[in-house]
Design a protein that fits this description.
Layout (H helix, E strand, L loop, with lengths): L1 H28 L5 H14 L1 H8 L4 H21 L5 H13 L7 H12 L4 H29 L9 H4 L9
Helix pairs in contact: 1-2, 1-3, 1-4, 4-5, 4-6, 5-7, 6-7
């Protein structure tokens, strides 16, 4: 319907804005000249690529749009934290937890955090602090998520089709 198309287009557009900010922030960490221009070209490629616009056509792909927005927001707050904004850590973890419970593809965020930390030009003291505050707890939160999933659904990772999704105690429904 037209309503779904509008919602999916709005989410796709939001992701484009988040990609711009995310790439600009990441390039800023590496002190690249004129990061806005590179980010703008990246957004144009994202918006025009048939691979990425497919999710606008299929309403069942709304999960991909949602998790992408949450992952990008988490990375944006991560880069802000790495640039000295200590308040961003709360928003980073909020986006990370929401992303985990949306789709397990978000398990890539702690790996991205580790890579950004390893290759950024920050001092060793700042790197150690970011590792302790962001990277280690992020990887630990994956373990916590999997443990909660095992207790709740009976599997370490829940998105494995109808056979798993339809196998739950009736008490959860009632």
């Amino acid at each position: 319907t037209i309503a779904w198309t509008c919602v999916l287009t709005a989410l796709h557009s939001l992701n484009a804005v988040l990609i711009f900010v995310c790439i600009k922030n990441i390039l800023g960490l590496f002190e690249v000249n004129n990061p806005e221009r590179i980010a703008l070209v990246s957004v144009a490629l994202f918006l025009l690529s048939p691979l990425h616009t497919e999710v606008v056509v299929w309403a069942s792909a709304v999960w991909y749009l949602q998790v992408m927005a949450l992952i990008l927001a988490a990375i944006i707050f991560l880069t802000r934290y790495m640039n000295g904004n200590g308040n961003s850590v709360v928003y980073y973890y909020s986006m990370l937890v929401l992303a985990f419970f949306t789709w397990e593809i978000s398990f890539c965020v702690p790996v991205i955090a580790l890579l950004l930390l390893m290759f950024s030009g920050k001092t060793n003291t700042k790197k150690l602090r970011t590792f302790a505050v962001i990277v280690l707890p992020s990887f630990a939160s994956i373990g916590l998520y999997m443990l909660l999933n095992k207790i709740r659904v009976g599997a370490w990772v829940s998105h494995y089709g109808a056979g798993l999704h339809l196998k739950f105690p009736i008490g959860l429904v009632v």
